[in-house]
Design goal:
Layout: H1 18-27, H2 33-45, E1 47-48, H3 50-57, H4 61-68, H5 70-76, E2 80-87, E3 94-100
Helix pairs in contact: 2-3, 2-5, 3-4
């Protein structure tokens, strides 16, 4: 698998601070699959566009498209928010920049 994040890996890394482990534990019951991968990757990146998050998760363009599409769903759930708009590092087009809210 070429994914940087395991599909079932919802826990924070061993080297992450305790607060990251707490946050990962709180998210686990509400998120699964691609949504969870998106939030975990965005937490690692800090602030990023949906395409940048997808690129951090996988090199497969079909999987990346599926991951990118989860941004609006996760935003509606209140787990991420738009903080700015800037050119995406992946596409060069202006895009919303997200950050994790919790």
């Amino acid at each position: 698998m070429d994914s940087k994040y395991d599909l079932f890996d919802w826990a924070a890394r061993r080297t992450d601070p305790e607060t990251s482990h707490i946050a990962a534990g709180e998210l686990q019951p509400r998120l699964s699959g691609l949504r969870l991968q998106f939030v975990n990757a965005l937490r690692q990146l800090g602030k990023a566009t949906a395409n940048e998050v997808a690129a951090a998760v996988t090199c497969d363009p079909h999987v990346a498209q599926s991951i990118r599409k989860r941004a609006k769903e996760i935003e509606r759930a209140g787990l991420i928010r738009v903080v700015s708009v800037r050119p995406c590092k992946q596409t060069g087009s202006k895009a919303s920049v997200y950050e994790v809210t919790q």
